[in-house]
Amino acid sequence: MKLMTVKMKAALVILGGILLASALAPLIAPWDPLASDLARALEGPSGEHLLGTDNIGRDLLSRVLYGGRQSILLALAATALSMALGFVLGLFAGYFQGGADMVITTASNIFQGLPGMTLMIAVAGIMGQGVKSMLLAIVLNSWAGFSRIVRGEVMRLKRESFVDGLKTVGAGNFRILFLHIAPNLFGTLCVMFATRVAGNVIAVASMSFLGLGLQPPAPDWGVMINDARQYFRQRPLLVLAPGLCVVLLSLSVNLAADGLRDWMDTRGENADSM
Hints:
By secondary structure, the protein is an all-alpha fold. The chain contains 11 helices and no strands. Residues 268-274 have low confidence and may be disordered.
């Protein structure tokens, strides 16, 4: 447990550093991330440009700092939307069951059976390039996982004695569902949200890398990696800097989610033993 605590602290330090640097990008970025200087293209690290410049002379450090803002906000938005959709559908499927459960479960099985990246590329290809189509693609790829877990938890809680007691005193289905069952899912949803954010950070970067999300000259990590592919041998840092940020952000969120899950499991065990 001590090792997990240390791991979680390390993850939170890395995550906090990335979030803070991204939030303060307008204050700490040394250059305008969109300002180009062709005379200084593909320069190596120097005192003036700490990480060097890209193929059209833009400061790499500034673009990396600003790129985190785009990726993090889009990953959070996509996760929140997919969780909201999956949460509502999972609640109704698990509590009312019957025809609603069959339709929702069938739909979630279909979406979960499709290859994730293929589905996202297909949706974005049909809807066109841009942030809205990227968000829709990620939501359609993510909602089913939330729905299935919420459905299972609701079915378990529905069998608890407190639900029978509430029905006995005349509580309606919607009151029971939203005021008594839904709050009991808060811990599970927190862990699910954190875990899904990590995956969606990579999804946002992947979609932008493929040209289906954010478009150049936006300072986005995926866009930066795509722009730097042909210069990788000449200036590896152009790919490594944004790529490392994507990996560190995703890894730190995953480790923090694992630590949160362990902490909640331990708290639950302690409560049961009291």
